[in-house]
Amino acid sequence: MKRVVVAMSGGVDSSVSALLLKEAGFEVIGLFMKNWEEPGGKCTAQADYEDVARVASVLQIPHYSVRFVEEYRERVFQFFLRDLEAGRTPNPDILCNREIKFHLLWEKACSLGADFLATGHYCRIQEGRLYKGRDPLKDQSYFLHAISGALLSKVLFPVGDLPKSRVREIAKKAALPVAEKKDSTGICFIGERDFQEFLMPYLGKRRGELRRLSGEVVGYHEGAVYYTIGQRRGLKLGGEGEPWYVIGKEIEKNIVYVERGKNHPALFSSSLVASGATWLHAPPRSNVRCSAKIRYRQADQPCLLTLQEEGRVVVQFDEPQRAITPGQAVVFYAGEECLGGATID
User: Fold this and answer.
1) In the annotation, is 96 catalytic?
2) What pTM was computed for the model?
C-alpha cells in the first residue's frame, strides 16, 4: 500500500483530498503546517488545527502538526517586506509553495516514509506535467509555477478534476465537519485585516504626496510602500468625477501617482520585462507564442515570449494589459499546461 502525506489546512479542499485518497486505497497521513505566530491571537492556526483533528477523527487517519514558523519568516515574510520596501508588490503564496509546502513539507513527508505528497490545490498532473484545474474559477496553477518540476511525479492533487461545488457535496455526504467552512481569503498571515494597519509596525509611516501625472498634488499618504498599481481602496480622495486609481510610484521620493478612471490610459501597457524565470521542465524556445497571466484568475492573454540571458524574459501581449505590477508573477501556459513563470520587473 502506497503511503501519502496530505497537507491538511483545516479547509474543505484538503479534507476532501484526504478522504478521496483513503477511498482510493492509499495509507493516508494528515500533516498540518504551522507557519505563523504573532502576539494578540490574530492567527487562526489553532482553530484550523482543531478542524484537522476533527476531520482526521472522522476519516480514522493519523495526523501530525509541523512547525515552520522560523523558516517561514526567513524565507517568505522577510522577502515580502524587502520587496515592499523596494516598491514592488510580492506574492507570498507563490514563495510559500516553493519554499515551504513543496520543499520543507516534502522533506518532512519523506521522513514519514511517504511515497507521495498531496494537497488541496485545484491543479492536475499528467505524465509529470502541471495542468490547470478543471474548475476554471478555482484553478491554482498560477501559484505553483515556481515549484520544482522534478517533484511533480511525487505530487497528487485529488480535487483537481472536480468543481468546487462537487467538493463540498462530497464533504457533506461524508459528514466532514468542515463541509460548510468558508474559504480563506487574502494573504495568509494578514487574513481579513487591513493591509496597511498590519504592516505599519514592520514598515513604519512616511508621509508623502499623492500626485497626478501633471505634478499636481491632490492629497497625502503614509507610505508609498502600501500602494500598488491599479489600487483604488485607501486613497481617501473625494471630489466629483470617476474614482481615483494608483497609476505608479517613485519609491525613493515616496511619491504615489494617481489619476481618475479605472481605465486611464496610463494603466495600460502592451509589454513587460520579467526576471528569475523558472520552468517546470525545459525552457520553451525563444520567440514562441503562448499565453500568460499577470494576476490570479485573469483570463489567458495571448503573447509572444522572448527569452534573454540569466532568466530574463520579454513578453509582448496581443492586447494592452491593465495594471502590470512589478513584483507580481507572470505565468506562462501552452493551452492547459503551465510552463513556468517569472517575476515582473
Assistant:
1) yes
2) 0.94
